Amino acid sequence: FTGFFNQNLRDVTSVGGDYNVRLTYGTRTMVGMEVAYIGSTQSMDALGLDRDALLFANGMEGMLRLNVVPNETVQPFLTIGAAWRHYTVRTDVNTSNVRDSDDTFEIPANLGIAVRARGFLADMRVGYRQSFSNDLLGSANLSSWNTNLNLGFEF
To answer: Residue 11 in 3-state DSSP?
Structure first.
């Protein structure tokens, strides 16, 4: 799930789906790395947009990961990194003050816990994404929160 901190953006968007495809290196060491394709989808309801308007976002991120207790079955972790994200408003009508698209630079940070069993890995994380270069809705900042449950395997 994902949502915005800025009240102007919360007024025109809903909490939406947040998804990723992630590759993590170093799950059994103190310091690891992650690279990911990131995306989200939220509905939009603003004067001048059609009823089915959606806000799509996709991009790439790179993260450093600090594994608090490496080699344990249950592993708390912290991440921080850098990301590029492209926002696109999908609508048939746009006579609003919402731009059709925006590119942003973000600094994402997450707090999470991973559990591993027989080569399978699940991690739950909550995060904050500080956003820069925002002009999708005037000067409203696109900084957001997210929570994810990631499932995968390690080898």
So the answer is: helix
Start-end of H helices in the chain:
7-12
pLDDT digits (tens, 9 = 90+) for 88-120: 999 999 999 899 999 999 999 999 999 999 999
* Distance in angstroms (rounded) separating the CA atoms of residues 141 and 137: 8
Can you read off the two tokens belonging to residue 24?
């993590």
Sheet containing 54-67, strands listed edge to edge, beginning at the edge strand earlier in sequence: 2-4, 144-153, 120-132, 101-117, 74-90, 54-67, 31-43, 17-25
Q: Which of 115, 112, 118, 121 is nearest to 153 (CA)?
A: 121
Element (H, E) at 38: strand 31-43
